[in-house]
Amino acid sequence: MSEDPKLTSTDKDKDIKENRIIAAIGYIFLLCLIPLFQKRKSEFAQFHGKQGLMLVICWFILWFIGVIPILGWIILPLGTIVLTVLSFIGIIRAYSGEYWELPYLAKYAKKLNI
């Protein structure tokens, strides 16, 4: 999370309150594009939209691995459970107004420049 010195605590609270639904939508597969492109000035929506995009990338990688015989048959169901749980946690945390970082993926999400 990058701190903007120009934003006061009140501005951040207002941003979170106004954009928490959009931020939560960002964890629903390709709907991550909504906060990324519709709420460009919202730090909160961008934070969660970028994390949602990282989950989408993981889904595509998982599906690619899933077609590999034996290995894919083991990894696909387990990965599906993990990514689904992470998506639900992200939705709940974003709707609650929290800046929750995805384990292992948040550092890559922060590097995205969209």
What does the model show?
With 114 residues, the chain is mainly alpha-helical. It has one domain (9-111). The chain is built from five helices and no strands. Helix 1 (9-25) packs antiparallel against helix 4 (71-95). The relative contact order is 0.17.
Task: Please provide a brief summary of the model.
The chain is an all-alpha fold and 114 residues long.
Give the class from helix and strand content and strand pairing: mainly alpha
Q: How far apart are the first and last residues' alpha carbons, in Å?
A: 15 Å
Helical amount: 55-70%
Largest sheet: none
Estimate nothing, just give the exact number of structural domains: 1
Unreliable spans: none
Strand content bin: under 5%
Which labels suit this protein?
single chain; mainly alpha
Summarize the helices and strands and which ones pair or pack.
Elements: H1 9-25, H2 33-38, H3 43-66, H4 71-95, H5 106-111
Helix pairs in contact: 1-3, 1-4, 3-4
